[in-house]
Amino acid sequence: MPLQIGTIISQARRAKNLTQEALAEQLGVSAAAVSKWETNASYPDITLLSPLARALGMTVDALLDFRASPTDEEIKQITERLRGIFDAQGFAAGRQALEAALREYPASGSLKLVAGSLYYHYLSAALAQAEDTEQASEEISARCLQLFEQGEGECTDMREKLCAQMLRINTLTLLGRYEEAGQLIDKLPPKQVIDDDILRHNLYLAQGELDKAEQLARRGLLTRVSEVSSALMSLSAVARRQRRFDEAARLIDAYAAVDALFGLDRSNGEMLRLMLALDQDDRAAALDALDRFIDARLSYTLDYRANPFFAGVQTSVPSPQEIAATQRLTLRMLEEDESYAALRSEPRFQAALGRLRAAIPPEA
Fold first, then answer.
1. How far apart are CA 173 and CA 234, in angstroms?
2. Lowest mean pLDDT segment, chosen from 7-11, 20-24, 67-71, 224-228
3. Which residues contact 174 (CB under 8 A, 6 or more apart)?
4. How far apart are alpha carbons 169 and 319 in whole angstroms?
5. What average pLDDT does range 194-202 have in this prediction?
6. Which contacts (CB < 8 Å, 24+ apart) does range 150-157 have?
7. How remote is the C-alpha of 136 from its chain's centroid?
8. Residue 165: which residues within 8 A CB-CB, separation 6 or more?
9. What's the pLDDT at 213?
10. Is the pLDDT of residue 82 over 80?
């Protein structure tokens, strides 16, 4: 990012009622030199920074607009700008811009947490274009882990530190470093006996701040629905591995019922049914589940802003480019993963993939 020193010099000089000539005389330079500084045609020599700052009544840090970390508002702006690059120009361009932002603020733990989270957010876009998805996943996950580790060490806010720890645990698990993940889990602070959101919700009600109470309750509902869905998915995976298929089916039905009740994405439930049918070597049931899964993926938006349960909670939704990247990754998984090899000779399987393939927009 270009230095803003010219604007700073110009504004500070005017605030002190100095002409360019008067400032130049104090510093032993020409008025033309000051003019070039203020128009960013050139920068002051490093040996002049201290005298220039003193003449303008400021520190060198203020003169150079130096801050170790961006403000919260600046991080928000940086995040939005990077999202726009990832969406419009693809993963490679987004990665280049992201790393440039990190070089500008190399000691900002908050920005590193944002950067690692963005890498994860656009992982599907990277894998959809990678020749070796496993290698690409490991490389990006390793970079995320590095950012989360550094971010945890550099953040001063305890909430950010806890967030960094949780992100590290998820990344270590993804990388198969289970012992390290377990050790970090053991170091996490114990859960509070009482949820402070419940206390805050009751406080809002007592104060008559009903809008705040409603939004806090909606966010809590979304969190708890996600927790229930995650637990049901985990339990179904355990039951499948232990070949307790009837129990797995009941758990998957419960998972799908939660999604249906709260108007959430149906595709995960259908994928669970597909995997269960493959475990049972039930080709007809697997193809039925695949058709429903493709239908759900084609209507996939993850946009819950108009959802009556969660209205006002969601602040951002996946862009069309992100959805397309997810669909490309889904198509690649179905085409290449050996889990689906038994179905690939089936006309229904190829027809389902054809529907998905036709719906994916061409890459820019």
1. 15
2. 67-71
3. 137, 141
4. 27
5. 85
6. 150/109, 150/112, 151/109, 151/110, 151/112, 151/113, 151/116, 152/109, 153/109, 154/107, 154/108, 154/109, 154/112, 155/109, 155/110, 155/113, 156/109, 157/110
7. 17
8. 152, 184, 187, 188
9. 93
10. yes
In the predicted structure, residue 3 carries a pLDDT above the cut 80: no
What letter would DSSP give residue 41? Answer: S
- The mean pLDDT of 327-356, rounded to a whole number, is 93
Q: What is the fold of 5-63?
A: 434 Repressor (Amino-terminal Domain) (1.10.260)
Which range among 33-42, 51-60, 267-276 has the greatest average pLDDT?
267-276
Q: What is the rounded CA–CA span in Å between residue 363 and residue 90?
A: 9
Of 10-14, 226-230, 312-316, the least confident: 312-316
CATH 1.25.40 domain position(s) in the chain? 72-187
Phi/psi zone of residue 176: left (φ > 0), alpha (ψ -120 to 50 degrees), beta? left
Q: Is the pLDDT assigned to residue 1 strictly greater than 60?
A: no
- Using DSSP's 3-state secondary structure scheme, residue 18 falls into coil
Residue 252, both tokens: 């998957």
Contact 74, 104 (CB under 8 A): no
pTM: predicted TM-score of the whole model, two decimal places: 0.71
Residue 343 is classified by DSSP as G
Rounded to whole angstroms, what are the CA distances from 124 to 27, 206, 267? 56, 45, 16
- Which residues in the chain are classed under CATH 1.10.260.40? 5-63
Could you tell me what percent of the chain has a pLDDT over 90? 66
Quote the crossing angle between the two packed helices 245-262 and 210-241, to the nearest 10°.
160
Is pLDDT above 60 for 64? yes
Which residue reads 């229904």 in tokens? 348
CATH number of 72-187: 1.10.3470, 1.20.1250, 1.25.40, 1.20.1530?
1.25.40
